[in-house]
Amino acid sequence: MQFDIITLFPEMFSALNYGIVGRAKKQDLLSLRFWNPRDFVQDKQQGRVDDRPYGGGPGMVMQVQPLRDAINKAKQADDTAAKIIYLSPQGRLIKQADIQRFAEQPKIILIAGRYEGIDERVISNDIDEEWSIGDYILSGGELAAMVMIDAIVRLLPGALGDPTSAINESFSDSLDGLLDYPHYTRPVIDSNGQAVPEVLINGDHEAIRRWRLMQSLGRTYLKRPDLLTNRSLNPEEAVLLQKFLECSKEK
Ligand code: SAM
User: Fold this and answer.
1) Which domain holds residue 41?
2) For the domain that residue 118 is a member of, what is the CATH number?
3) From the CB of 53, is ligand 1 less than 6 Å away?
4) What atom of ligand 1 comes closest to residue 135's alpha carbon?
5) Is the CB of 10 under 6 A from ligand 1?
6) What value does the mean pLDDT take over residues 18-47?
7) Is residue 174 predicted with pLDDT exceeding 80?
8) Is residue 7 in contact with ligand 1, taking CB distance under 6 Å?
9) Do 172 and 147 belong to one domain?
10) What is the structure's pLDDT at 60?
11) pLDDT per position as a tens digit, 71-85
12) Ligand 1 atom with the shortest distance to the CA of 133
């Protein structure tokens, strides 16, 4: 998958040289190309990519021309059709289902804003979609772009050592929008004397499946009830959630 990133700070993306994304890069599952608006400034003497906002007010705004030229270069760098995305706190909140759709794209151009943001005419004329990573303000779009790339790359075939890892994660289709169930590893009893739930070590796969579903339902109910509001429970799920709630009352 091809990512073209429009950024004033390409060096920041060295954070993607680690872990799963770093390994995927080495396997050529993705390629990153950077386009710095500074390299497209026409008035080399002034050398500015930003200017004061019309109408007054604090801060600076990224100018149209260097950004537009950088986007066009990124588009023309190969023959692949690209989706052009501006990372912005005003965009739609990215969910796992969106990440799944992005992972099917052959090429994405990501625009990382800085300062007060980018000139509105770039947003209305040059980008396809505006996406946010959360209701808070970052100093720039680079971290948001990296968050997006990381989440997308996990879904590329071959990126994860065990491809089933991505299948059972929170928000995934196989968990049907629920949170992941709790995980345990050795030792069976930890230094506080707390034991791994018995059901996980007795080898009864059906009992494990039901316990995990019950935990997923229960923790979604407790931690993210909003995820359950548009989701009906089938009869098995309704019974398991009831059981989970009764057990938690007893504790
Ligand atoms: N003035 C803008 C506003 O209030 O909507 C915020 C500009 S912010 C300081 C600078 C840049 O950071 C933005 O252009 C955008 O690219 C990026 N950014 C900030 N918060 C973000 C978020 N929650 N999601 C994605 N990008 C974000």
Assistant:
1) 2-153
2) 3.40.1280.10
3) no
4) 23
5) no
6) 95
7) no
8) no
9) no
10) 98
11) 999 999 999 999 999
12) 24
